[in-house]
Amino acid sequence: MADAAIARAPAGRVRPGQPVPVSYPSLPALLFQQARQRADRPMLRYWRDGAWQRLRWAAFAHGAAAVAAWLRAQGVMPGDRVLIVSESRPEFPIADTAIMAIGAVTVPTYTTNTVADHAHILRDSGARVAVVSTPALARKVAEAAAQAEGLDLLLGMDPPPGLPGIRTHGWAEAVATPCDGAALEQETHRIAPGQLACLVYTSGTGGAPRGVMLPHRAMLANREGVARITEQLHLEGEAYLSFLPLSHAYEHTVGFLLPTLGVEVVYSRGADRLASEFREIRPAIVTAVPRVFELLRGRLLAQREKLSPIRRTLFDRAVTLGLRRMDGPKLGPLARIEDAVLDRLVRRAVRERFGGRLVAMVSGGARLDPDLAGFFLALGLPVLQGYGQTEAGPVVSVNPPWDIRRETVGPPLEGVTVRIAPDGELLLRGDLVMDGYWGQPGATAAALRPSEDDPDGPVWLHTGDVGTIEDGYIRITDRKRDIIKTLGGDMVSPARLEGLLMAEPEIAQAVVAGDGQAGISALLVPAEDMAEKVEATVQRVNRRLSGIERIRHWAVVPPFTLEEGLLTPTQKVKRRAVLAHHAATLEALRR
């Protein structure tokens, strides 16, 4: 294997590629210890009752201890799985910590899940307890529980409705439970690092979500790897604007990591409030999926159109020279002076629009177009790309703010070893790697196995992504497996969607697309004499899908044939061939 085919994080206090030493056996042990040290410091900020509210560390720890005591009183035991269905709000991390502190397992799920999604997760995980935010979500989970026949107890963050056959309790009752926080903290130090902390469900190749088993060591290893970067950014006391839902694997981990590094997490009110929140919060760090950066660029360009002709020219020139400074050709003496002037006249104003304190705007969850990143970097905004997988804690790599290479996803975190297999697949190992898929030994064995050129060697996580490693930086070039990752970072199974479409009598063949796009598009071949009924059929199928899966655009196309190279000899559709053949049609749909 060539030297260029393997990379490790830069040397620091540990040897490259070796496990990063951690001081805490479990995530709740770390959180309770931090609460003692930072008792009066703000941990979280959130919007409620028309104003920003703060949750301080001491209140967080007391709430987690009280809810832990309440869960125990209700019969929740170590190893039990507990569903959390909630928006980003302080009750989420309190419940999450309480569940893990008593040795139970958190199952965070999306509020946008369909009833069928919730039923599958309840059935698959065996969860008999759920913590739910709103009455509407409680009713949806109860409907799912009726299908799965497995939910006994529901704790509502907001007063829950009465649900037949399910014991329901309110949050006020749980947080009023008498508790011994010091004793609970001692217990958390007896939780083994390898003990299962959470099940995070992610789509599999067959379409049904699979439970990724993340032990405490995986998230703690992520924290230590990220800490090596944040230590150099001096972020103590700064704010992190949290945009992704806490059920997202990235936010579920990072939302716990950054407060323990002295950063206050602020829960955003949503994409429509981001512009004002940048100015209100003045964050140092923001994380989002590429779709959010597309929206932000659109707003900047819309504001550009309102400028006077002279100021518009200055804006464009700032972008042009900023890109030249990064990509070449090298700026001459006069151009450097012009660039410095434009930094004061243009870029400073743009930075102020984003709060003026940003050190990193991290994009993850899907591929970030280098041209999109370049636009922001040219305007002095530190947009950088990272890479991760739910199966890996989930943070694998990130571009350091002081050395951004926008064509890449950065070098691996310290403690992570990556390599490229002979077929080009990216492999990785380290304490951040999952224990496997819940109840799926076959899928686990396929994902965690030795590399093909060293069958007797160590087990690696096979990521399904194809890439290269150049000068220690990872570049993702393709996806080996057929899972669509949308611009919003959501994972969608094309096989599931195509199967649902072709199950309808009006549709003979279907191929869906959407990798790196804002939504799902479909190429549809109608059954004989059914072309006029395709629209109604798509709408019917969409009603059975979650929001991220719904078909946003579609086109009726001629049948896929063997003669055109679009079918295999056994009449299976060649997805990549179809997508290439109809590339122009798909492009037109996206406009």
Automatic annotation (TrEMBL):
The keyword Ribosomal protein does not apply. InterPro entries: AMP-bd_C_sf, AMP-dep_synth/lig_dom, ANL_N_sf. Residues 32-438 form the AMP-dependent synthetase/ligase domain. One of its GO terms (molecular function) is ATP binding. The keyword Coiled coil does not apply. One of its GO terms (cellular component) is membrane. Pfam families: AMP-binding, AMP-binding_C_3. It comes from the Bacteria. Keywords: ATP-binding, Ligase, Nucleotide-binding. It catalyses: a long-chain fatty acid + ATP + CoA = a long-chain fatty acyl-CoA + AMP + diphosphate. This is Long-chain fatty acid--CoA ligase. The lineage of its organism: Bacteria, Pseudomonadati, Pseudomonadota, Alphaproteobacteria, Acetobacterales.
